[in-house]
Amino acid sequence: MPKNVSKKTFYVTTPIYYINAKPHIGHAYSTIVADVLARWHRNLGEETFFSVGTDEHGAKIAEASEKQGLPPKEFADIMSEKFRECWKLLNIQYDDLIRTTETRHKESVVSFMQELYKRKFIYQAEYEGWYCKGCEKFLTEKELVSGMCPDHKRPAEWIKEKNYFFKLKKFLPKIQQMICDGDMQIVPKKRENEVLSLLKQNLPDFSVSRQNVRWGIPLPFDPTQTIYVWVEALQNYISILGFSTTAAQQGERFQKFWPADVQIIGKEISKFHCIFWPALLLALALPLPKKFLVGGFFTFDGQKMSKSLGNVLAPKTLVERFGVDGTRFLLLSQFPYGEDGDIALAGCVERYNAHLADNVGNLVSRIGTMIQKYLQGRIETHPEKQIILEETNKSIEERFSALMARDQIQEALLSLFEASTKLNQHIEEVKPWKLAKTHPTILKQHLLSWSHTLHVIGRCLAPFLPNTGERIQRAFRGPEFQNPGILFPKIS
Ligand code: ME8
């Protein structure tokens, strides 16, 4: 099904998060990255769709709700709301949020599974193996550490049951070829290599149903089983678009936005996303996502930050201290996308002050003060200086856009701070306080030039720090300077 090509579209997704516990900064990070891309592509004039969601079925959620003494759906309602609140707090501008307990998701998944069965890609078999409820997946002997799941530090359970299996093997060569041909990109390269090496391991077919998990969507052709939570969760990316195998019920959104342009995921779920998900899509002859951006982990003392281990940092803690844009900055600037990194709260204060309060914040306030003092608050275009201005600003914007196009998200953000540092240094060299006395006309030209540069920086910064970017643009858009106030108060 070809994508509607009348206007360039852009579809970006985040993983749908488990709701067994509240969101932490790992979830915030991948969601903010998706938000940056969505905002950037909207600014480029593309018709953009940005999806988020919550993964609400399966043994892990059933267990968590039981611990709270609540029916699973009631528990899911409460917990899903926490994610919604968190995205609001972080100024995430998503287009839709899908919950896997919603009817629209269930209907879409049922039609998908029925079609797989009809096309004979599903068969029944006995299965036994070690299962980790935390991961919601079977683990091999080799993956276990002293009988425990290495990620969740809990004993795996031996499970033997009747299952339905999907003919994964049939699709592995095609997936490998699509990755090698660049038709389905996996970024960064080292994650692509990991997926390619998994593909060479001759993976077995995987189970698409569970016999003893009641909290899930019944398998349409055998309601004594529920659909394996991962299989239905992956389908959220198309159920949110209204996917159906019945042409008459096919959603307009699906026609317009599928295949996804970018799917943001963490490295621990790349096997599901870059192998299982494409295989399911190929079985129904659907196009594959164009790109996966695979993120690393925030760690605490070298250990993965995870809801199950309880070593988490809540986004709210950071927002209370550093504000929304401060938090977005700290998370996005800490590591190149795709790398792991240990979170050090102490370093956050230093980075906030150095980049936000003392660099960009200070630059905006000193140029603003000079415009009020020397130009009586008027920012007018100045034909003689226009050429020089455009060249400087063009290079800031071009460098930034090139980095964004290469998915170097952290580097793109930091390039704006480099531009700001340079401008701060340039002001020191020019010594405006002296020029004001000796060459007021030249000072005026400089001030106009600097305010244009700030306007460009504000425009590029807006997808990352929306409020700050908007305030900077408004301040220096002209013809009247609009005082943005203090952007980032210094923190001690
Ligand atoms: O895996 N550092 O949900 P999940 C950085 N429901 N990112 C992190 C992180 C950390 N310490 N911890 C989590 C699931 N993430 C499934 C997904 S999608 C069809 C189903 C981020 O709640 C990262 O993006 O465990 C990771 O892949 C995702 O949250 C997993 O969230």
From TrEMBL:
InterPro entries: Met-tRNA_synth, Met-tRNA_synth_2, Methionyl/Leucyl_tRNA_Synth, MetRS_core, Rossmann-like_a/b/a_fold, tRNAsynth_Ia_anticodon-bd. GO terms for molecular function: ATP binding; methionine-tRNA ligase activity. The keyword Membrane does not apply. GO terms for biological process: methionyl-tRNA aminoacylation. Residues 10-153, 157-367 form the Methionyl/Leucyl tRNA synthetase domain. It catalyses: tRNA(Met) + L-methionine + ATP = L-methionyl-tRNA(Met) + AMP + diphosphate. Its EC number is 6.1.1.10. Is required not only for elongation of protein synthesis but also for the initiation of all mRNA translation through initiator tRNA(fMet) aminoacylation. This is Methionine--tRNA ligase. It comes from Candidatus Kerfeldbacteria bacterium RIFCSPHIGHO2_02_FULL_42_14.
